[in-house]
Amino acid sequence: MVVVMSPDATDEDVANVVSRVEGVGGAAFVSKGVVRTIIGLVGDIDSFHHLNLRTLRGVADVHRISDPYKLVSRQHHPDRSTVWVGREGARVPIGPDTFTLLAGPCAVETAEQTLAAAQMAKSAGATILRGGAFKPRTSPYAFQGLGVRGLEILGQVRAATGLPVVTEVVDARDVPVVAEHADMLQIGTRNMANFGLLQAVGDAGKPVLLKRGMTATIEEWLMAAEYVAQRGNLEIVLCERGIRTFEPATRNTLDISAVPVVQAASHLPVIVDPSHAAGRKDLVVPLSRAAIAVGADGIIVDVHPDPETALCDGPQALLGSDLRELAQAVRRLPPVLGRVDAGQLARR
Ligand code: PEP
Ligand code: MN
């Protein structure tokens, strides 16, 4: 941490900062310039925070040097992590050595629709099934998902296809039931900063898929991951799903640069959701290719056997030739970047 003194700070002001820092067990290194003095602090950052240094007379600014997140930071964990999803004997990796396709319907609507979507996903190369049972809808009048019945359907489809299941949890009270049925718990963009929910999924003992808040900075997103990690759960996969910008041509703007930025800052795997980023199926394959090329550890994509009748996000769901094109990209591009298909490394 570095304290920058204002040009009119007195020797007494500087001495006051030094003595407070030393008072909490830290060390302060004073560097006097022609106009300003700066003070470098070494020691426990949390104890410096409690000093409220910005409020002291003569202090102009205080800068952090180290990351505000710890457990998810790459500073203390240089090797990138792999998260394994699924039950004993059929676990699928998401991490730096592999490329993982997660696919399925936006929402679980019926057993038949979910099974058909899962089969489409599997034939495109997906090794993890997505599908929402509890849907966070913008309108309270829109389809809210089948709830526990949807979780049961996902369980049946997992049994039929062998695909582990990721599904969203929107309320801390539902965490136990969702954790009982799902292999991975998804936190959606709207709940990224719901800290009670993050702590609850941190306690659930299942891997977590943490989507980026649509207006969250990368640092805020990583701090959200820190909430989960702090409960003892480091099985977290981050998902870039587009952010709100001034551009209305797409539903959100896919922040493709977030992938390498996050991979440099954090050891956690990072995947991309081109479907929710674009909101349009014609952009899903190009954005998937971009995600693979930029080094994402996987992508999560909406598919639906009949998008025209979909109860949620039909316009972005893939089928037919679009899905075949996606399958081709997922099969061909990751090996060029030295990645193995996650299905090949799955623990059976
Ligand atoms: C979803 O994946 O179903 C979803 C609602 O995504 P997001 O939270 O990114 O909008
Ligand atoms: Mn959706």
Describe the structure in your own words.
- With about 350 residues, the chain is an alpha/beta fold.
- It folds into 2 domains: about 1-65, 2-Layer Sandwich (Alpha-Beta Plaits); about 85-345, Alpha-Beta Barrel (TIM Barrel), CATH 3.20.20.
- About 35% of the residues lie in helices and about 20% in strands.
- The strands form 3 sheets. Strands 7, 8, 9, 10, 11, 12, 13, 14 and 15 form a 9-stranded parallel sheet that branches. A 4-stranded antiparallel sheet has the order 2-3-1-4, covered by helices on one side.
- Strand 7 (about 100-105), helix 3 (about 110-125) and strand 8 form a beta-alpha-beta unit.
- Helix 10 (about 280-295) runs parallel beside helix 11 (about 320-335).
- The radius of gyration is 23 Å and the shape is elongated.
- About 45% of the residues are buried.
- Bound molecules: phosphoenolpyruvate and manganese (II) ion.
- Phosphoenolpyruvate binds next to loops.
* SS-based class: alpha/beta
As residue ranges, the low-confidence spans are none
Bound molecules: phosphoenolpyruvate, manganese (II) ion
Number of separate strands: 15
Which features does this protein show?
12 helices; Alpha-Beta Plaits; alpha/beta; 348 residues; 9-stranded parallel β-sheet; TIM Barrel; 4-stranded antiparallel β-sheet; binds manganese (II) ion; 2 domains
